[in-house]
């Protein structure tokens, strides 16, 4: 059983205009994610959802100015990015990066070796990767292609979930993994997330601004995220309200 605990988190991002003050984005986020739980964070564009995911993962441009993040009581903010991954945090990015010249098979094996602390036994590993690729409807030929290079949006998102399936993190943050997916890809990706939650008892932080994915991945908790913080938390019924009425009631609340 693992717990990711975020307390009163404030985060600034460096201003692109270097002479100007940093921009304050996260404004006191409180959130606790336990193993086996699925939390959906839903908010309009620009509300700071990706900033939250970057702050947890340790992106150098995002500075935590106050508050805390711990994983099973360990101070995440003192860890480097790779230490966070080894500790069991995983981020599926909203915009996965292309890495020309590095094959997917090489990348996955290197990542698994780094996270597990030893190279996975080759015969086992080949089977594991093949199985996970089949589960996600990824053709085996992809293993020899450069990471994300020339992948369609849907292929990139499947690849993120392939990493999730192979790395077995304690807590997975999925930043708009549903964006740009057609219905078939959405179903396959959702099944991958559900497998992770059920088989690994993983904790899931599902960031999205559409309720569509919640038909496939059932959240235990829904948090409405506006203006850099959670303005309301509830159960799945909160997503139904967002589906019906949008964010207006909440944006008004954030400005009050
Ligand atoms: N690296 C950055 N430089 C400048 N502004 C940024 C940067 N990252 C995020 N922001 C700003 O912070 C706000 C929140 O962004 P983001 O976290 O991406 O929101 P969301 O993921 O909810 O759409 C936006 O106004 C965005 O323009
Ligand atoms: Mg975002």
Summarize this structure as a short list of keywords or feature phrases.
four-stranded antiparallel sheet; 256 residues; binds magnesium ion; Rossmann fold; binds adenosine-5'-diphosphate; 29% strand
Which parts are unreliable, with pLDDT below 50 for 5 consecutive residues or more? none
Strand content: 25-35%
Number of domains: 1
Identify every distinct bound molecule in the structure, by name, code or SMILES: adenosine-5'-diphosphate, magnesium ion
Q: Provide the gyration radius in Å.
A: 18 Å
Task: Provide the helix percentage.
Answer: 25-40%
Order of helices and strands: EEEHEEHEEHHEHEHEEEHH
CATH topology: Rossmann fold
Describe the structure.
This protein has 256 residues and is α/β, with parallel strands linked by helices. The chain has a single domain, classed as Rossmann fold. It contains 8 helices and 12 strands. The strands form 3 sheets. A 6-stranded mixed beta sheet has the order 6-9-10-3-11-12, sandwiched between helices. A 4-stranded antiparallel beta sheet has the order 2-1-4-5. A two-stranded antiparallel sheet has the order 7-8. α5 packs parallel to α6. The relative contact order is 0.18. The model has no long low-confidence stretch (mean pLDDT 94).
């Amino acid at each position: 059983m693992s717990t990711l605990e975020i307390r009163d988190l404030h985060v600034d991002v460096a201003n692109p205009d270097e002479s100007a003050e940093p921009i304050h984005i996260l404004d006191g986020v409180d959130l606790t994610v336990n193993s086996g739980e699925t939390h959906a964070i839903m908010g309009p564009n620009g509300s700071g959802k990706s900033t939250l995911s970057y702050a947890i993962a340790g992106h150098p441009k995002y500075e935590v100015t106050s508050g805390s993040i711990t994983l099973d009581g360990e101070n995440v903010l003192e860890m480097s990015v790779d230490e966070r991954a080894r500790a069991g945090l995983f981020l599926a990015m909203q915009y996965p990066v292309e890495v020309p010249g590095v094959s997917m098979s090489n990348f996955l094996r290197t990542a698994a070796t780094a996270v597990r602390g030893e190279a996975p036994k080759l015969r086992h590993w080949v089977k594991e990767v093949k199985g996970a690729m089949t589960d996600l409807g990824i053709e085996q030929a992809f293993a020899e292609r450069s990471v994300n290079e020339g992948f369609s949006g849907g292929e990139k998102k499947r690849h993120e979930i392939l990493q999730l399936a192979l790395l077995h993190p304690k807590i997975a943050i999925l930043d708009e993994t549903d964006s740009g997916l057609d219905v078939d890809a959405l179903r396959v990706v959702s099944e991958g997330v559900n497998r992770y939650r059920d088989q690994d008892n993983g904790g899931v932080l599902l960031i999205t601004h559409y309720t569509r994915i919640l038909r496939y991945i059932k959240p235990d908790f829904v948090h409405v995220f506006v203006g850099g913080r959670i303005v309301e938390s509830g159960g799945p019924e909160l997503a139904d309200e967002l589906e019906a009425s949008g964010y207006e009631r909440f944006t008004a609340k954030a400005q009050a």
